[in-house]
């Protein structure tokens, strides 16, 4: 909170990060659904990475929207989870949904690192 008791405004950088997180969250959910529809045994490592990324990106966006003092640290963790998910998705290179998800994860990781003030 600022000294006047009002929450600080959401900056353009925060808005970009929130949007990237929500886009990545949606893409992970769609990719999990796609994996399940294909039948067969989806690779558990990939599914775990998708689940972790879906949850981390949603939580990160939520924390930024409510101006949590932990949002910067969550952004750094979110970037790591997104990197892990992108790597897991690229382990299935013949699946176009996985490749789209990997790209969304990379984009989100980049905006989260910028939001956290970390160098790339």
Automatic annotation (TrEMBL):
Gene3D superfamilies: 1.20.1270.360. Pfam families: Csp. CDD domains: DUF326. InterPro entries: Csp_YhjQ, YHJQ-like. This is Four-helix bundle copper-binding protein. It comes from Streptomyces dangxiongensis.
């Amino acid at each position: 909170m600022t000294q006047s008791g009002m929450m600080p405004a959401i900056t353009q950088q925060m808005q970009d990060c929130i949007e990237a997180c929500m886009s990545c969250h949606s893409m992970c959910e769609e990719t999990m659904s796609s994996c399940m529809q294909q039948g067969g045994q989806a690779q558990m490592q990939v599914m775990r990475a998708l689940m972790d990324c879906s949850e981390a990106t949603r939580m990160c966006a939520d924390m930024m929207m409510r101006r949590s003092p932990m949002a910067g640290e969550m952004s750094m963790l979110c970037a790591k989870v997104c990197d892990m998910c992108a790597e897991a998705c690229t382990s299935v290179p013949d699946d176009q949904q996985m490749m789209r998800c990997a790209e969304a994860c990379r984009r989100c990781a980049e905006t989260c690192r910028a939001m956290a003030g970390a160098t790339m």
